[in-house]
Specification:
Layout lengths: L3 E6 L15 E2 L2 E2 H11 L4 E6 L5 H6 L8 E6 L17 E6 L2 E3 L1 H9 L4 E5 L2 E8 L16 H10 L5 E4 L5 E3 L4 E3 L3 E3 L3 H13 L7 H17 L7 H20 L3 H25 L9 H24 L4 H26 L8 H7 L5 H13 L3 H33 L2 H7 L4
Parallel strand pairs: 1-4, 1-6, 4-5, 8-10
Antiparallel strand pairs: 2-3, 6-9, 7-13, 8-9, 11-12
Helix pairs in contact: 1-3, 5-8, 6-8, 7-8, 7-9, 8-12, 9-10, 10-13, 12-13
Length: about 425
């Protein structure tokens, strides 16, 4: 199995507000924690941290790495050399060097890992303090002159005929499975307050997950709120999720009491808040398995909204058609969700991002945001039952498109993998 290791260099030239860069927090997370998480996310668990007197507290914080399930070792920086003499156990594989004054995301490490040969990361012509050396090239570290700095190390590589590949990260896009789109790797040197603000803006910008047109309507408000609260430590994604669920059932109660107009508008506001927890987690760069359970609670209050809205409509209109529309809506919406989840589980990729057509339809498919808009419009027009017609119609269209596309894609996968051919062999075409 191919294994990489990493050396993190904490010897940086300047502090910001008296804080050394590795311990500076951006969106509430220190640079050193982000670097370690990005490495961990790409299967790199063996890390050597080169310490200097300004950042010795890192050792007290991270210790041997057991808490984060990584093997973290430490070595003291030499007075005149940025790169100390590397222990032998870190020279038996390719080695990534990272200066701890950069803010990075896992996608950057993914690109570095997947690029063969010696690699240097650039932003146009600026070296960003991230590079990778092949195992065979590491013998160059025997020369103390090459360990003076990362820049000197790169110079020496070129002199020895091992010119590294220059990765201009501004020209690279990496497919992000969770976001269902391609994003740029992030690697920004933190040298002053302006660079912190730049990094924070970029981190928040990359948190956008939804493809639906309503997600882009909500985006400016969500991004602004995430930017404002991301540095407040006691505001966490899980706490926002709990608040959203409490407010969601307040909305349900308002629907039941017949306050359809105010409840519909409040529901849309709650929907905006619901977009913040995931964005906050992504801006902080550390995603948990536990956070995914939020989607189950989202489904719970969404389905509760549809039922309570319909009961509120029935209370106000006594229209028996409501008693048909709400179960029809719930069954259809549940079927859509199941098709989506089953397809992702089977194919390993989201149906909404599988092809160009699927991406386009995902912008207008039936989901909570558009259903709430129907509630708002027709409640304001004093025709709330029409909201149920439009909600069910949109859900039905989505169910037809998604089931048809899922069947088509899965049949193609069976053909490409030879499964359909095996069926033909046994007489079951």
């Amino acid at each position: 199995m191919f294994i990489l290791k990493c050396c993190i260099l904490t010897k940086t030239k300047s502090k910001i507000n008296g804080i050394p860069p590795p311990l500076i927090k951006v969106c509430g997370v220190t640079l050193i924690a982000r670097i370690l998480y990005a490495l961990k996310a790409n299967g790199i668990n063996d890390v050597l941290i080169v310490l200097n007197k300004d950042v010795e507290t890192i050792k007290d914080l991270i210790k041997d790495g057991f808490q984060i399930r990584m093997n973290v070792q430490y070595i003291t920086a030499e007075e005149t050399l940025e790169i100390p003499s590397i222990p032998e156990e870190f020279l038996d594989s390719d080695l990534i060097f990272i200066r701890a004054d950069v803010i990075i995301n896992p996608e950057l490490i993914k690109v570095v890992v997947n690029t063969k040969g010696n690699v240097i990361c650039y932003n146009d012509n600026e070296f960003l303090g991230v590079c990778k050396l092949n195992k065979e090239t590491l013998t160059i570290l025997n020369d103390p002159d090459s360990r003076e700095s990362l820049e000197r190390l790169i110079e020496k590589l070129s002199m020895h005929g091992d010119s590294p590949i220059k990765l201009n990260i501004t020209q690279i896009r990496v497919e992000h499975e969770q976001l269902k789109r391609a994003i740029s790797p992030i690697c920004i040197r933190i040298v002053n307050k302006e660079s912190i603000k730049k990094a924070k803006r970029m981190l928040v910008k990359q948190t956008q997950k939804g493809l639906h047109f309503t997600a882009y309507i909500n985006k400016p408000i969500e991004d602004m709120l995430v930017y404002l609260v991301s540095d407040i430590p006691w505001i966490t994604p899980n706490r926002i999720t709990i608040l959203v669920n409490i407010l969601a059932f307040v909305v349900a109660a308002l629907f039941l009491m017949g306050y359809l107009k105010i409840a519909s508008i409040f529901a849309y506001i709650v929907g905006i808040l619901d977009g913040i927890d995931g964005k906050l987690a992504r801006s902080r760069g550390i995603l948990t398995k536990l956070g995914h359970i939020e989607h189950s609670f989202d489904m719970l209050f969404e389905q509760t909204w549809y039922i309570c809205f319909a009961l509120g409509v029935f209370y106000l209109t006594n229209n028996l058609m409501v008693l048909f529309l709400i179960p029809a809506m719930l069954v259809t919406d549940s079927f859509v969700r199941h098709i989506y989840m089953q397809f992702k589980q089977t194919s390993g990729k989201a149906l909404t991002a599988y092809s160009k057509f699927d991406r386009i339809f995902a912008r207008i498919d039936g989901r909570r945001n558009i259903y709430v808009i129907y509630m708002i419009i027709f409640s304001l027009l004093e025709m709330p039952i029409y909201a149920l017609y439009f909600m069910w119609g949109h859900a039905l269209l989505t169910a037809i498109i998604y089931s048809t596309r899922a069947i088509y894609h899965l049949r193609k996968l069976d053909e490409n993998q030879g499964i359909k051919g095996f069926l033909n062999l046994v007489g079951k075409p």
